[in-house]
Amino acid sequence: MKRSMSRRHFFFFALAASASLYGCSRSKELSDIHGIDMADTDIGRDFLLTGTDGRQHRLSDFKGKAVLIFFGFTQCPDVCPTALFRAAEVKKLLGEDGERLQTLFITVDPERDTPEVLDAYVTAFDPSFLGLYGDLEQTAKTARDFKVFYQKVPTGSSYTMDHTAMTYVYDRDGRLRLGLRHSLTAQEYAEDIRQILALD
Prior knowledge:
about 35% helix, about 25% strand, metal-binding, two-stranded antiparallel ribbon, copper, SCO1/SenC, 10 strands
């Protein structure tokens, strides 16, 4: 378990470093943000996954809305439910602007997270939340594209999943703008997302 944790931390710091090394041509549009500016990183440009609504989805399907993307799994004991509960709180904090926010939950455990299980899980936090899944190969490719680390961790006769706990935020044109750390509050998320929604 120590090795998996150190690898996860490595991926997080590599992600943060890549965000700081790229140019900041659009960073002037955001000020005093709580998250990591990822406006010019080559991360998470797109995906092709199946939604719990039975349709295939790409990022372009959500143009016109700010998009929150989080990777996790339904049997996660704390990080994933906390992330989705916070996303629901953020939507409430945004008031009417909350209708212009779409939360997407991508499972890293497609073997157990069937469409029915995934749909029931995400909509329990908010009916507008959408679960996304692929086969093992699609899941691995999507995780690589987003620089997300995940792996099975045996627990007796079953397993859990160790994974990156980062929320990605896209603007209304489908451009990745921010990485929000799991340690931030719902209020801090909302403050950053208000700026995203205010962009032309």
